Amino acid sequence: MALASTNPAITIGPDSNTQITPFTQSVKIGRNVHYLISDSLSPESILEIPESQWDINRTDTVSLGFQTETYWFRTHIHTAENIDRYWILDLGNTLLDNVSVFIFNENTLSQQWHTGDNLPFENRPIQSPRFLFPIELNPQQNYTLLLRIESTEAIELPLHLTERFAHAVQNDRRSLVDGIFHGFLIIMTAYSLAISITLRDKSYFFYATYVGSMLLFFVGQQGLLYQYFMPNWPALQHYLIPWFSMGIFISVAGFFENLLQLSKNTPLIWRFFRFSLAFH
Question: The pTM is what?
Answer without folding.
Answer: 0.81
